[in-house]
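pipeline stage [seq->struct] | target=High-affinity zinc uptake system protein ZnuA | organism=Paenirhodobacter populi | residues=319
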Amino acid sequence: MRDTVLLSLALSALPVLAMAEVPKVVTDMPVVQSLTAQVMGDLGTPAVLLDQGANPHSYQMKPSQARALQEAGLLFWVGPEMTPWLSRAIDAAGGKVPQIALLHSDGTHLQSYVDDDDDDHDHDDDHDHDDDHDHDDHADADGHSHEGLDPHAWLDPHNAGNWVSVIAAALAKADPENAATYEANAKAAQERIDTLDKDLRAELTPVKDRPFVVYHAAYGYFAAHYGLQDEGSVAFGDATDPGAAHLSALRADLKAKGVVCAFPEASHDPRPMQRLIEGTEVRLGQPLDPEGTQITPGPDLYDTLMRTIGGNLSGCLGQ
């Protein structure tokens, strides 16, 4: 009788043990959380470190967020080029946080902030994704990166689809019992991204030859993927303010390049963009949100982010 009771107790505990094997997942910013949430599905909800509305390029973690990072079973992040503050936090944790820097995962298409064909390539080199990547050469001590590798790679749907596969593989390795679920969820996410890509291409093709400028240099991947004419930005790639000489040159380009629209950004003051186009025929478009910091976090965020960018671009450029 005693053995029967013990066996019953053991069997009743199995679902709890299985659930306990799902790793505690932490992500750096909303767009990565969205892709990861699609892969995890009902198995769990990944945490996101970046507060809603905060600048991902320069952020100070709260003590509770630092603890969450140290307790993470798995961290998915873009990489140190995007969030140098997180790179420092990983180092402070002794490099013991199991982590995947998605920007440096196999199959990711990379491009530079500057026109350099040698920097545009498929990232096919082998990497140890569980090790810290030292890419401090891309950013100075303040996290400012004005040239070199552009980290906003999720704005190319090809990369988002690739990252979903990378996330699923890492989760399956950490939690083999649920590998089939991660794989199925990743396939569904990729199909959703494919549909999104087709819809955006159809929407943007009619305006692909109409030049525009943006608030900060975040849209290179998006413009390249859809063949759009992004002619420059007010702020640098990490959203730091430029000098007067840069603004003067950009203003001259408005007429010289026939710029049609200028797009401010959701989390930044629109007045610099308004001053830039004052006295010109350039239209002010709706704000863009490349990092999704103004969108409610969750599995739908990536789709919403991309469709909103596409809709705002076509809405102004198509007038």
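stage status: PASS
auto-comment: Residues 179-204 form the longest helix (26 residues). The mean pLDDT is 84.
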